[in-house]
Amino acid sequence: MPDEYSTGSLVKARGREWVVLPQSKPDLLVLRPLGGSDDDIAAVFPAFEKVAQARFAPPEPGDLGNQLAAGLLRTALRVGFRSGAGPFRSLAGIAVDPRAYQLVPLLMALRQKTVRMLISDDVGIGKTIEAGLVASELLAQGEATGLAVLCSPALAEQWQQELRTKFGIDAELVLSSTVSRLERGLDLGQSLFDKYPHVIVSTDFIKSPRHRDDFVRHCPDLVIVDEAHTCVAADDTSSNSQNQLRYELLRRVAEDATRHLVLVTATPHSGKESAFRNLLGLVKPELASVSLDSESGRRQLAQHFVARKRADVRQYLTKEDGLSDDSLAERTAFPSDRYFKDETYKLSPEYRALLDDAIAYASERVEEAGGQGKREARIAWWSAIALLRSLVSSPRAAAKTLRTRSAAAIAASAEEADKLGAPLTSDAADNDTMEGMDLAPGAEITEDDPRSRLGELADRAAKLEGPAKDLKLKALVKHLKALLADGHNPIVFCRYIPTAEYLAEQLENDKESGKRGPLGAKTVVKAVTGTLSPQQRIERIEALAEEAGEDAAARRVLIATDCLSEGVNLQHHFDAVVHYDLAWNPTRHDQREGRVDRYGQRKDQVRVITIYGDDNGIDGKVLEVLIKKHRQIKKDLGISVSVPDELSTGVTDAIVEWLLMRGREGQQDTLFGSEALDTATSKVESDWNSAAEREKKSRSLFAQRSIHPEEVAREVTSIREALGGTGEITTFVRESLEALGAVLRGTGEEFTAQVGGTPIGLQDALSPAIGAEVIDKDRPIPFRTDPAVARGEAALVRTDPVVGALAAHVLNAALDKNVLGARPARRCGVVTTDAVGTMTTLLLVRYRFHLTLPSRNGDRQIVAEDARLLAFEGSAKNAVWLTPERAAELLDATASVSTDPHFGERTMTRVLAQLPAAYDHLGVYGEELAAELDASHRRVRAASGEIVRGLSVTAQKPADVLGVYVYLPTNPAAPATTPGVSA
């Protein structure tokens, strides 16, 4: 085999660069794309296809650039790296720029031979990104060959999109709606988990015994479990409960000690110690019983458990974290504390009369059923709750409930009645899924004719629609107008589908009929409920944002049920939450608010308005006992502490019992006189305070301590040296776009750019990244410093698609002088400047390294890239080499006078002719970089000795000199400003 085709060498074929693999023969090359995976391996016959060494042609001395050329070319080159040098193999190839604190779980994972992690960071910190980083790194290193994500079916498509767009992992959805199609494509006896290496699986689908056994037998070697707290059960949980079925599935998955397992949840501790211990036991069996009061036990847990509040990471890598200075400090723009406002309303006389009659009816039913048997009593109980909750929600929901048969009515026993009735009428935090939970419950429990008493109540409810008699709706309109006037875009959360549809009808502008809603002509209102599939919900939200458009005066109002209260991230489009219906478990309120109060929210403060009835007998006490108490605990601790479902249910049951008693006896006395309610309130207060104290203690005991900030800082420095930092990207984007003819507006760190006047090649490259309509209509493209950007915006990070497209254009234009239009970067330049005292030459050098990375799946051969600046004073033959810091400073040198082009070309010709004398130094420097790279891999994996045995790093020679830039002193007699080191 020719030397240029030897194993590990780089070749160019089919328009891209490849690594030659060991299976290659002289007449057949087996190639893997540079930065690609084993899935992209291809075979090439050199006799039939053009294959050449992947080398740059020498720079041309006549193709000179200005003082910005070197910096732009270096950044363009580094942005294009898909296999960067450093211990993290995946970071160069993913489309996300992780925050420094998000590297902590990754560092913890790489210190384990088999990764077992429980990631329990607070809501909105970025647990999905942290889990994705671990997964992409394990796959890139060959430590894992397949991935399964277990999650709620409502979140499956979001996980699929996150993995594909941010981490380049294509995963197949395995849901009840897709499994038949997938199984039709299988060979005889083949499991779909063998056919598809990366899958996203509905936990509720796969937990059934029929599918569970196949999954366990063919499960990938890396599993991520989202919302892991719903997959464990306390020791006193029924054996056939949904949580118990999920727990049995995960227990069997975790039994394989060689399987990587990453559990993700913001609420690891539900208040039940046994459930928390069972969760830890999935990570490692010994953690289920280890003493967490001892220092050794906490150290053992700290290797696998990370749980941080926003306050812990809002400012990171500062002197307060033990670092010597704030040079690497990272400030993450989480919103400040939420602004809460509770707004009341009173029932209209007609609504008051309807509610009183409904309570009297429900009371009679419950009393009558009590004498018939336990089954009948429970059916009547759930019917009464359904009736009361729907009446408090809206006239539309009330009418629907009054005309619908109760789900519990078909129950054969009291236990079955509870199983059927509870999900639709309660707000349990551990409900299997929010799917189907926003249906209006039924209240009918007998087969009466349509003109029954319930039918009459339904007719009365239907006549109460509209703000004249529905004063709750009138109050909502008032508060929405205030929010919109203050520049907010709110989400209104309802309990039931009929309520959401009713509000949308009352508030929206109807273009066809010409009806104008009460919120203004430029306010777009849409409803998203469980009647839509998860993908349709996202599409409707995007349609709402698009219809509102870029008009600063346009406003968005989303009416939603709790089908959006978990998982879906809405911070880019909305910044306020209105609780139109109170949830009977405060955790649900926190979940709703968490959709907008998270990383990426532009508003510094998220507004939360809770609308409650002052005189309906229910809302006031729920607000006081449950909602306000939950807020106070979160404010004190900085995190949410769940109230056990049975405690919140005890409070709401006592409220309903009191209302029904009042309906029987005609009492109008205060709710506070209920002895049962007082007892339930005292118990929830006591148990909740105890849970908060335990959580406060555990957060102190289990604070992340296995990775010190200094270790993170060292790796962040290494990453920025190899791939560039935010400041470098911002400068690159500004200078490149200006040089290419874009119109930039904004003088601060953030700005907008119109690219209609740039070369057509750049516009074509940007179109798929930002959207064809933006380019065609020459809309301004907002560039943000925050990596969490909305659609139609670009982030000033190297992994953003817009930045990548711009860098590719700049690099290609620098390499090809025949490209049409402006060429901001060039491979050569001669600059006369006051920044040097003697002739100084700056080299932009691309280094490539061959790495052998041992893994439990065999050695993996990888080629990594790095771009470095080297500079010397004088001639190449007698070079005085400068420090790397001094070389980088030359990028900021400005021209003091113009350099004559003919003189510049002659100077560059002479320097290029002498340059081979510097190649020995470039080779020695490459070996030093290889040694540093070897050390960094060993450092990151220091805790797992087996992983680093056999690791090797060698530099490929010769290095590629991509750019040569000569800096001439304005006054040649001036002494050198910085002493160098003689070659």
Q: Would you report the number of β strands?
A: 33
State the oligomer. single chain
Helix residue percentage: 40-55%
Overall average pLDDT = 84
How far apart are the termini?
Answer: 37 Å
| Major β-sheet profile | 9 strands, mixed
Task: Give the low-confidence spans.
Answer: 666-673, 974-983
Radius of gyration: 32 Å
What would the principal axes of the Cα set say about the shape?
elongated
The SS-based structural class is: alpha/beta
Tally of alpha and pi helices: 33
β-strand amount: 15-25%
Quick rundown:
By secondary structure, the chain is an alpha/beta fold.
Plain-language structure description:
α13 crosses α23 and α27 packs antiparallel against α29. Strands 6, 26, 27, 28, 29, 30, 31, 32 and 33 form a nine-stranded mixed sheet that branches. Strands 9-10-8-11-12-7-13 form a seven-stranded parallel sheet. The protein has a six-stranded parallel sheet with strand order 16-21-20-17-19-18, sandwiched between helices. The C terminus is likely disordered. The chain is α/β, with parallel strands linked by helices.
